């Protein structure tokens, strides 16, 4: 693109008449040349992403799935244990209440 600008600039300079149109064309060529120089001097934008993690690998997903499964089984066993404990406590409470009533009747 720089070659085209240089050719256009040469054509403007070779013009024999110094009219307002030629002066405007020369000014436009200078502005375009400055713009291309500034674009070339501008730093390139960074290619990496800030604050974003790349996607998870298959191994990470398998690890997460295993952790969820183990946690689910653990919660299930804890629920069964609490149910057994509650049932046992209820039976003990009924037996103790029955024993208390028997002792109250004998007195």
Can you tag this structure with a few keywords?
single chain; 107 residues; mainly alpha
Descriptive overview:
The protein is an all-alpha fold. Among the domains are: 2-40; 73-107. It has 3 helices and no strands. The longest helix has 49 residues, at 58-106. The protein is rod-shaped, with a radius of gyration of 44 Å. The N and C termini lie far apart (115 Å). 0% of the residues are buried.
Low-confidence stretches: none
What share of residues is helical?
Answer: over 70%
Largest sheet: none
Task: Categorize the overall geometry.
Answer: rod-shaped
Which series of helices and strands comes N to C? HHH
Q: Please, how many helices?
A: 3
The structural class is mainly alpha
Please state roughly what percent of the residues sit in beta strands, choosing from under 5%, 5-15%, 15-25%, 25-35%, 35-45% or over 45%: under 5%
The N- and C-terminal alpha carbons lie at a distance of 115 Å
Say how many strands there are: 0
Residue-averaged pLDDT, rounded?
80
| Whole-angstrom Rg | 44 Å
